[in-house]
Amino acid sequence: MDKFNIAIDGPAGAGKSTIARLVAGALGFIYVDTGAMYRAVTWKVQQEGLLPEQETEVATLANRMQIELIPGDEGQQVIVDGVDVTKAIRSSDVTTHVSQIASYGAVRHLLVARQQQMTVSKGVVMDGRDIGTHVMPDAEIKVFLTASVKERAERRFKELENSGTNTLTLSELEQDIARRDQFDEAREISPLRRAHDAVLMDSTSMTIEEVVDEILGLCKDKVGGGK
Ligand code: CDP
Ligand code: CDP
């Protein structure tokens, strides 16, 4: 069976990265977390002492920085200009500003072009906000994964508590998620939207395994299974 591409979009904390990584592992495909690229630009902006509002300077910086995504069993490693930023890009400081950086047309244009290059040879599971609508409009499988804000905040809270990196209360996390969703849905360029041909999955009361199985089922139905 020929390789194919899978697009997984949805709001913050819906389970996109976890599920995309497991689906990619099951099919022997490559997993690409596009949010990490917007986070990497945001991290670099902060390192260089730029303000997120400095759109022109931010775009220039994004254009000259190198972002490498290295697939691994534990997820994707992110290297910016030779520095491993895999953990640093998850800081609350980056999370607070990433949606503003991701709203800039020049930044999106640049990153989308890089993302599209990665999908040419197929066998890619890519997650983000505009993958089914913009980055891979021809993806064979498209999923729009969501869950209630409350459930997404609880999941993120547990994740941060378990890794010992939590600095926020559950209610602060819920507010942050709702604010980011609103920003991503309202931006002019490639806002967060369900593609008309994406399958909607509400995972509020689904386990990770159930969502993965459902997506693998879609793959079997549509394209005969993968490898
Ligand atoms: O993992 P989490 O849901 O917290 O977010 P992420 O996937 O790491 O993405 C961080 C931010 O990058 C999002 O809130 C969006 O503002 C932006 N993003 C985007 O605009 N387009 C994408 N394809 C991926 C992420
Ligand atoms: O990438 P995104 O922001 O959409 O979400 P994630 O980082 O993959 O998932 C956020 C947290 O929710 C992780 O700790 C997952 O293990 C958890 N999760 C869950 O408990 N149940 C699901 N059905 C999906 C994700």
TrEMBL record:
Its EC number is 2.7.4.25. Pfam families: Cytidylate_kin. Keywords: ATP-binding, Cytoplasm, Kinase, Nucleotide-binding, Transferase. ATP binds at G10, P11, A12, G13, A14, G15, K16, S17, T18. One of its GO terms (molecular function) is kinase activity. SUPFAM superfamilies: P-loop containing nucleoside triphosphate hydrolases. The keyword RNA-binding does not apply. It comes from the Bacteria. Its main location: cytoplasm. Transmembrane segments: none annotated. PANTHER family: CYTIDYLATE KINASE, CYTIDYLATE KINASE/PANTOATE-BETA-ALANINE LIGASE. Belongs to the cytidylate kinase family. Type 1 subfamily. HAMAP family: Cytidyl_kinase_type1. This is Cytidylate kinase.
